[in-house]
Design a protein that fits this description.
Length: 300
Amino acid sequence: MAAKIQGKCQVYLLAVPKRCMLMAEILDGVALAKRIKDDIKKEIVQKNLEVGLAVVLVGNDPASRIYVNNKKKDCEECGISSVEYIFSESASQEEVIALIQRLNSDKQINGILIQQPFPSHIDVFTVNESVSPLKDVDAFRADTVGRIAVGSYGFLPCTPAGVMELIHSTGVPVAGKECVVVGRSNIVGKPMALMLLNESATVTICHSRTRDLGDVTRRADILVSAAGRAGLITAEMVKKGAIVIDVGMNRDKNGRLCGDVDFEGASKKADYITPVPGGVGPMTRALLMKNTLTAKSLQS
Ligand code: NDP
């Protein structure tokens, strides 16, 4: 895997197109994430930096526990120190916000990550907004997302930023491409569309009220699905030669983790495709580490 400098950002070239083959090139998010984490570690060691991430968890959601443990491992791999704060399910919103305010002024802590979902008595928006803009490494604050629209930002949300790295790893230029994003959430779909637009793509956003989804997705040179619906994107909905990025994390009827895309069918038509697991998920985590390092430099 080679790395090159494109504009201001480093681009990792992961995949080599195999145009004469029938199957798509699989974009290996695990390998690319490792490369990014290795670079983060190198920078931290070379510059002798002390970087800290605080992770706040409310309640006992088992999936959240797994995510928090994974993030702790990522921090260890990168040389970032991590501190976990775990509240019981009954913790009040005021208690959580009081901790965040304390972390906002703690010089040892560069990034604050609030693991979601929250118990229903806690308002996600209010809690996200209480994180300092300089420590908003998940990029969930409304102004952080808004800054993407005007192309002037400190942090990019980890999942769409990870998707952009995967797209860049193909070496295919984004400018001028027809891009379709399925999903319009504030944390994935909308920022994803803005980031593609910022790279001069022609972008269409689809959602549950889109009339003929296949009609739109078949136009996509780059298709990003973030709907959270297993089997939503069939092979017939994919343009030949497309880049297909599957953000979805679902369970199939056997309880196995799967994305939104029919991987087998779509990989016969696409030039590049991400697997689930092993595609976008590890990239989201790597980009969180990158944002934490960025936070350190923004605070220096
Ligand atoms: P949300 O539920 O907030 O948003 C889902 C979006 O998909 C909505 O905009 C919804 O439309 C749209 N949608 C749902 N069904 C359809 C359909 N049949 N046709 C077209 N659009 C549809 O989810 P998130 O954005 O938070 O997450 C999306 C998926 O990505 C989930 O599976 C989640 O687990 C996964 N995810 C994965 C991450 C990773 O690191 N790999 C990180 C974050 C999320 P409408 O707005 O009209 O309801």
